[in-house]
Amino acid sequence: MGETTVTQSAQPFMGPAPLERAVGWLRGRERAVLTAAAGLQVAVLVAMIAVRAMPLVFGDTILLRVVPVDPRDLFRGDYVILSYDFSRRSPQGIEGLSQAGDSRDKAWQGRTVYVSLVPDADGRYWRADKVSISRPTSGRYIRGRIAGSGQLEFGIEAYYVQEGTGREYEQAIRSRRLLAEVALTSDGMAALRGLRIE
Known about the structure:
Blueprint: H1 17-28, H2 30-58, E1 60-65, E2 75-76, E3 79-81, E4 94-95, H3 105-108, E5 112-119, E6 126-132, E7 140-148, E8 151-153, E9 158-160, H4 166-174, E10 178-184, E11 190-197
Parallel strand pairs: 4-6
Antiparallel strand pairs: 1-10, 2-3, 3-9, 5-6, 5-7, 7-8, 10-11
């Protein structure tokens, strides 16, 4: 009987060829890839700035009364810490939150809240009407988030001031004579335009 030899079909060795091709492709286009990466980073930064500037460009300006806030030292170097009548709310004071399920403070952190605003008696200033986790269907409102421990943040809590003027603003806050000029878009985005002392 003749011997039967079994031969395995030779499979091509893949090895590092695809990786080498990819590296070779990148080397040939190194400048274009670096330019694209830098362009992407710049585009992301510009988009972030544009989003924050939208209220200043497209929003209406309203006046909000600034209220004193703890800690007592409101002046921190080059900026003043600001608080408003709606900056602190217990979970029970936020409409819809008590029905949201979890009663732990940490479960609510980062959740979006909406503060409905109404004109004050004189019609010059705006004040909070109610705070809710549901977007209002009409009227002016400001959009923020729950920062924890009953603190709400809206992106208008700090204002950079000219050197040497911080104490003047601090005294105005303590005597409730400080107003914040807030640019507000129709969808509740807010940006601080300036401060005014009465």
